[in-house]
């Protein structure tokens, strides 16, 4: 992507970013943020970073957008008035100046990089055949820096525990409530019935091809989490109680499989998370299959938030 389309996309991204900062209404700013994430997705596609583009679309525009919409809904539904700071203009100008400053620093840092820029890409390409996967992103995440990926999955669990710790004592053990007063015959309920089967198929496909093509467990998990949230928001089902042992088993199953394979590597290959010769790709696929449902449940419950209603489960 080059020439006029690139300049137009850059102008749209910058203009939308400015509009988000200056927007007066919360929902308008959130809608702009979601559109901003989609434009960044196009930018990453133009840079041939398809894996990053998929993650941006799923996280930046999808789950983060849903989180912000939920936060805005709670503020409005809770009777909070739109925040009007006395020095609103000054705050916005400061935000714009800070954004421009950070952007300028990043540009200067990029310009100061030597030519060619330092990279480990040749080493990754050299050892990729030994791993057996065709997607270098998957090789990096689950072979060359598998420990980081394991810790990221565990950090998500700790983040969920932190969210649950905000639960009032009287509400502990209840399910999070993300449902809206949706018409059972309305558009939201209709979409929540039609879209999830399609989303599940796409998520499984993205997981399966992730070893050799753009995709993988995290992108698939975000799609599954989005589908589950959609069904819950439409009121077609409820989240499980946070005290459910089955729920907790789903949450820890993926990381436990990851740790078990790491210990197997320590026994068979001499190092934690090392893979025996000829078994790297099968073990990576097993890790991805085990992690995807755990990540999906974790992400969905992170967005659902802590239980707030101490009443009985409906």
Automatic annotation (TrEMBL):
Every MrpA C-terminal/MbhD domain range? 11-76
Provide one Gene Ontology cellular component. Answer: plasma membrane
| Keywords (A to Z) from UniProt | Cell membrane, Membrane, Transmembrane, Transmembrane helix
Q: Where are the transmembrane segments?
A: 6-22, 27-47, 53-72, 93-113, 150-167, 187-208, 220-237, 249-275, 282-304
Q: Which Pfam families match?
A: MbhD, MnhB
As for subcellular location, the record says: Cell membrane
Q: Identify its membrane topology class.
A: Multi-pass membrane protein
Highest taxon of the lineage: Bacteria
Q: Which residues form the Na+/H+ antiporter MnhB subunit-related protein domain?
A: 187-299
PANTHER family referenced in this protein's UniProt entry, alphabetically = NA(+)/H(+) ANTIPORTER SUBUNIT B (PTHR33932), NA(+)_H(+) ANTIPORTER SUBUNIT B (PTHR33932:SF4)
Q: What is this protein called?
A: DUF4040 domain-containing protein
